Automatic annotation (TrEMBL):
<dbReference type="InterPro" id="IPR034746">
    <property type="entry name" value="POTRA"/>
</dbReference>
<feature type="domain" description="POTRA">
    <location>
        <begin position="267"/>
        <end position="345"/>
    </location>
</feature>
<feature type="domain" description="POTRA">
    <location>
        <begin position="176"/>
        <end position="264"/>
    </location>
</feature>
<feature type="domain" description="POTRA">
    <location>
        <begin position="93"/>
        <end position="173"/>
    </location>
</feature>
<keyword id="KW-0732">Signal</keyword>
<dbReference type="InterPro" id="IPR023707">
    <property type="entry name" value="OM_assembly_BamA"/>
</dbReference>
<comment type="similarity">
    <text>Belongs to the BamA family.</text>
</comment>
<keyword id="KW-0812">Transmembrane</keyword>
<dbReference type="InterPro" id="IPR039910">
    <property type="entry name" value="D15-like"/>
</dbReference>
<feature type="domain" description="POTRA">
    <location>
        <begin position="25"/>
        <end position="92"/>
    </location>
</feature>
<protein>
    <recommendedName>
        <fullName>Outer membrane protein assembly factor BamA</fullName>
    </recommendedName>
</protein>
<keyword id="KW-0472">Membrane</keyword>
<comment type="function">
    <text>Part of the outer membrane protein assembly complex, which is involved in assembly and insertion of beta-barrel proteins into the outer membrane.</text>
</comment>
<keyword id="KW-1134">Transmembrane beta strand</keyword>
<keyword id="KW-0677">Repeat</keyword>
<dbReference type="GO" id="GO:0043165">
    <property type="term" value="P:Gram-negative-bacterium-type cell outer membrane assembly"/>
</dbReference>
<dbReference type="GO" id="GO:1990063">
    <property type="term" value="C:Bam protein complex"/>
</dbReference>
Length: 763
């Protein structure tokens, strides 16, 4: 039997004539040879003929091209043997495994996923060209990490059943470090000050973590734009970057960057003119323009002017307003004039408000925070206000808003809110350490977004020696459609001062209360409530005489009817990570008849955030507390104010500041007081290298505070001060807070508390 070669590889690659011409014939049978993993049916599917058909040369070429196109075969031949069509294939091997050796910079699992996207993965057909692409891409990734000496070698090992094993052998080497950043041509500013503007830097204390001492083309481009913006903001309108040279030493360990610049001259603004369709009042435009004749030119001020006018028009419904400033430069006088052209465009209204990303939170919980309504005129301020209200819920890590035009219309937009939900269930564990205090533990379970309804439920358990608490609280922030909140609290609390440096006594309180909150303005609420409390007081032989006298006069158990009323204003931009805005509250608690005790306790707090840069903020906080008995009855000693420790004056032991009493053993215990002042200044900034990640935050702080008794004269000279650093991290297992504080002013008997941390577990 003689086989006739009908067509081969050249026919598939070059569409040439077959190696041997043949006469068409009728196919008696079809046979496939050479397959190991590929099903014969796969080959049959690509053949344009079946048994009994007449087979031609054109069909042969068509079949070979189709089989090559599958990528399964290295070679394909079609032969004829006494009317039998024989398809002979040489299968490509399959990839059995992919291994990495010497890879430390990247996760092997992530690398395999990247190779899979290139088409190189286990069980797939092996392709040498894809392997070469993968090798080059891995080298490129090492270059982006500053590892210029990294080498990548690939080994392909044949295995049984026409399979191969691929191995990447990597020698990473050390990352090249930036040893010098030099700026040439600067005269107005010191080179050191300009380099400090850059994200790229030479090796320092934190560069092991931030990697900012490793060269990156993208980072350098960003730094050059920062440099350009800095000069333009200082009036250097003709500033230019002439060249940028990046050189690496022969051993590929050190990088030197040289930037040549031309500063030019400082330009003054000679005039500003507004033209176009000026639909807003003239005085409004004058208020919005931040660039004035006689000012030194600043691109930042010009950009702020354009944005302010655009936002103002957006608040009037002109969502697509266009504001452009055309400069007219006089280089002889070093002056520039601006013609700001205003085109408000068409007034538009909101077609739909769409919400995405809320897998647990119900739509209604989000929509009730909307201040922009569907069908109403577009209002940029209301849209941003709605975003802030969503941020302040505390249910979301991110809230993003977009306003795309409705296709096919010129006067409608959709408002799309996309939220990234955070875990709102919290199992909080608290631990405190000090030089004189034992470990104190506490725990609470809370869900601030119960079943996605926006309602809050908290069950707290505190089993510390000092404060044993079992409490249940529930709050519905929208008991009515108008936003009136309703809640209740039930608790059983045992407070034992023995484990703190507070005069010895013990109270056991059980109570239940209801409360309401009524919004009176966008940021303002009035809160009021009523509760019944029963407190039993236990004194001991070594308790202060004041405590014993109180129990003797009024008994060791009292039932109180407590009325509360308060006002709060919250204009902070975020509940979790505020950077600007104000929080104020006034709170008054009064024990009223027919209760057995009479007292009033008031608290005022004022907190303000000031943004710095893009990610940092300064927080100033002040609190004043006052309490006093009335109706011929004194303030119960267990209602006294205390200060010191986390939440008030860090650096001092919990509840240790204020009046003290001398014990028989010579020690002094705190007894609290009826007046308290707390002041805090804290500067929050991102952890170096985390960029826009808000989950890491560092802070530096200064605290001040003190407590005075009823028989003490108030004096600011009695205040205690402390300073320290803090760290906060919204970790995968929950929020972590750590502070290290040192007293700046303390007296001989003051108790210090240096380290405090708090850890919670999210669920």
């Amino acid at each position: 039997m003689k086989r006739t070669l009908i067509s081969g590889l050249l026919a598939a690659l070059f569409a040439a004539a077959p190696a041997f011409a043949f006469e068409p014939f009728v196919v008696k049978d079809i046979r496939v040879e050479g397959i190991q993993r590929t099903e014969a049916g796969t080959v049959f599917n690509y053949l344009p003929v079946k048994v009994g058909d007449r087979f031609t040369e054109a069909q042969a070429q068509q079949a070979i091209k189709a089989l090559f196109g599958t990528g399964f075969f290295d070679d394909v031949r079609i032969e004829a043997e006494d009317g039998v069509l024989v398809v002979v294939v040489d299968e490509r091997p399959a990839i059995a495994q992919i291994d990495f050796s010497g890879v430390k910079e990247f996760d092997a699992k992530a690398l395999k996923e990247g190779l899979k996207q290139l088409g190189l993965a286990e069980s797939r057909i092996f392709d040498h060209s894809l392997l070469e692409q993968a090798e080059q891409e891995l080298k490129r990734q090492y270059l982006t990490r500053g590892k210029y000496a990294a080498t990548v070698k690939t080994t392909v090992t044949p295995l049984e059943r026409n399979r191969v094993a691929i191995r990447f052998d990597v020698t990473e080497g050390e990352a090249a470090k930036i040893r010098q950043i030099k700026i040439v041509g600067n005269h107005a500013f010191d080179e050191e000050d300009l380099v400090d503007l850059f994200e790229l830097t030479t090796p320092g204390w934190f560069t092991w973590y931030t990697k900012s001492d490793q060269y990156s083309r993208q980072k350098l481009s960003g730094d050059l734009e920062t440099l350009r913006s800095y000069y333009l903001d200082q009036g250097y309108l003709d500033f230019s970057i002439d060249s940028t040279q990046v050189s690496i030493t022969p051993d590929k360990k050190d990088i030197y960057i040289t930037i040549s610049i031309t500063e030019g001259n400082i330009y003054k603004v000679s005039g500003v003119k507004l033209t176009g369709d000026l639909i807003l009042p003239d005085d409004k435009y004058r208020e919005l323009v931040k660039v004035h004749a006689g000012d030194t030119f600043s691109r930042k001020a010009l950009t702020e002017t354009n944005k302010a006018i655009t936002d103002a028009l957006g608040n009037e419904g002109y969502a697509f307003a266009n504001v452009n400033a055309a400069p007219k430069v006089d280089r002889d006088k070093n002056e520039v004039a601006f013609n700001i052209f205003v085109d408000p465009g068409k007034r538009v209204y909101v077609h739909r408000i769409n919400i995405a990303g809320n897998e647990r939170t119900r739509d209604e919980v989000i929509r009730r925070e909307m201040r922009q309504m569907e069908g109403g005129w577009y209002d940029g301020e209301k849209i941003n206000r709605s975003k802030v209200r969503l941020d302040r819920l505390g249910f979301f890590d991110e809230v993003n808003v977009e306003t795309p035009a409705v296709p096919g219309t010129t006067d409608q937009v959709d408002v799309n809110y996309n939220v990234k939900e955070r875990q709102t269930g919290n199992l909080a564990l608290g631990v405190g350490f000090s030089s004189s205090e034992k470990v104190v533990l506490s725990a609470s379970v809370s869900q601030q977004n119960l079943f996605g309804t926006g309602n809050a439920l908290t069950f707290a358990i505190n089993t510390s020696k000092t404060n044993k608490v079992y409490s249940l609280s529930y709050t519905n922030p929208y008991a009515t459609i108008d936003g009136i909140s309703q809640g209740f609290d039930a608790y059983h609390r045992t407070y034992d001062a023995n484990s703190l440096d507070i005069s010895r006594y013990k109270t056991t309180s059980t109570g239940f209360g209801v409360r309401y909150g009524v919004p009176i303005a966008e940021d303002d609420r009035i809160n009021f409530g009523l509760a019944v409390d029963q407190t039993k007081v236990t004194t001991f032989s070594d308790s202060p005489v004041q405590y014993k006298d109180f129990v003797d006069a009024f008994g060791n158990q009292a039932t109180s009817l407590l009325g509360t009323i308060g006002w709060s204003r919250d204009s902070r931009d975020s509940f979790l990570y505020p950077r600007k805005g104000t929080y104020q509250r006034v709170f008054l608690e009064v024990a009223v008849p027919p209760g057995e005790i009479r007292y009033a306790k008031a608290l005022y707090q004022h907190q303000k955030f000031f943004p710095f840069g893009d990610y940092s903020a300064l927080m100033l906080n002040g609190e004043v507390g006052w309490a006093h008995g009335y109706g011929g009855k004194p303030l119960p000693f267990y209602k006294n104010f205390y200060a010191g420790g986390i939440g008030s004056v860090r650096g001092f032991q919990q509840s240790s500041l204020g009046p003290r009493i001398l014990n028989t053993d010579g020690s002094r215990d705190s007894i609290g007081g009826n007046r308290r002042i707390i002041a805090n200044a804290e500067y929050f900034f991102p952890f170096p290298g985390t960029g826009r990640d808000k989950t890491f935050r560092l802070s530096t702080f200064v605290d001040a505070g003190q407590v005075w008794g009823a028989d003490q004269k108030f004096s600011f000279g009695d205040l205690r001060y402390s300073a320290g650093i803090g760290f906060a991290w919204s970790s995968p297992i929950g929020p972590l807070k750590l502070s290290v504080a040192k007293p700046l002013k303390k007296e001989k008997d003051d108790k210090t508390q240096t380290i405090q941390f708090q850890l919670g577990t999210m669920f």
